[in-house]
Amino acid sequence: MSLSVYIALPLLYAATLLQVSLLSRLPTAGFFMQPSVLIVMAWSVHRDWREGVIWAFIAGFYIDLFSVSPLGLSSLALIAGVMLAARLEQILPTESRFATPIIVFLGMLTYGSVNLILASWLTPTQIAHYGGRVLPTALWHTAGTVPLIWLIDGLGRVFTQRRIGPRPT
Amino acid sequence: MNLNERRRNLRWLPLIIVILLSILFMALDRAGNLTDALRFITEPSANAMAWLAARSDAFADSLGGPRDLQTAREQIDELQRRIDALEQQNRELLEIQGEYQLLLQLFDRVNQAPDLTRVIADVVAEGPSPYFRDIVINRGTDDGVRVGMPVESAQGLVGQVFRTTPNASLVLLVADDASFVPARLSASRATGIVNGAAAGDLLLMDWVNLEARINVGEIVVTSGVEGASPQAIVANRFPPNIVIGRVIDVERSEAALFQRAIIQPAVNLDALETVFVITDFEPVDPSVFDIEAAP
Fold this sequence. Notes:
The complex is a heterodimer. The model of chain A has no long low-confidence stretch (mean pLDDT 85). Chain A has 6 helices and no strands. Chain A is mostly helical. Chain B has 6 helices and 12 strands. In chain B, the strands form 2 sheets. A 6-stranded antiparallel β-barrel of chain B has the order 1-2-5-4-3-12. In chain B, a hairpin with a 7-residue loop joins strand 1 and strand 2 (134-137). Chain B starts with a helix and ends with a helix. Chains A and B meet through helix 1, helix 3, helix 4, helix 5 and helix 6 of A and helix 2, helix 3 and strand 1 of B.
């Protein structure tokens, strides 16, 4: 298991806490944003799926901990989203500029759909009631995740260049 | 099995482990066996949420009032600064007046039903899932709050305690799909079950007898009858006569066995600040209905 899990534990906890305490009180014009989900998807696309599923499990755990949803439900949904995104990365030509937004969007759409289906299966939540939220939330999450991936990629390049660059004489 | 095959199989190990763990957590949580085990996370979280909520209010206020900020920048002379100071003072006074009004309403509510024991609580957070309607309050088992206890505000019913920690509780709002409240119409006296399954913030009152004449504008209150819906994820025990909302529409079909009322909740569930947890009340004894039903 990668050491990144030690970053994921406090980072995703802080992101979830930020969402429930701060973002819920700000005017969001009806948009729903889950920072921990953005972080997980960005990290999964940047790194490989094995780290992604562990991050997804941790983020889902925190989300369910602060919600009435059964513990583990969001983890499973997020794992499904991450796995689909990982599979699409293998299929789609990643050099295309549209590949990343499409991969993230479909991953987010899978996360939202699986989350709602499991919620309707395990609790009295009705798909008809919340179904309309899945698509806008996936789009909104995609808009937040793609810049995050570029940021992580950019930072990764900076640090990699520093590490392999020639030592100053 | 050679080394390569074993390595290939090990690649799927993290996925298998996290899926199994998720399913295990789900099963344990549904059985109610995880609440105590997770206290080491939920307790400090509640303190952190309360701290953040106190700071986020000021931050949200500053975002909500850019016009005041713009004005403040333009005001450069002493007189204008004095006006600013007075406006600020005025705002503070209005805020104090608002809090006073809220406390007055809460006080009135306590006087209306003095037989109910209540714990006053502040709303410190909202749930992170887009598919559930829930809030976090800053009172928990240390304050006598238990799972299933009804939560109300000065205006009416808010929901029911779903999960508790020593210093905080998660409240399932009445507008959630998973909320089922036994209810009664104040004028026609017909009973039914109020559920949050309507679109938006509206509620549905189902299982209302077809013979009942429901009037638009009629007030809906809790009936106090216990255990009316097996679908409920917490036992639905509510004291009688807590206002839930007002009928805004009626769906009636002669082909159906029951009619349905659309309810506007009495409480603005998106702007909750202070709530009451009803910690003790006498539930209606449903055994009298059994006697009446007997031949």
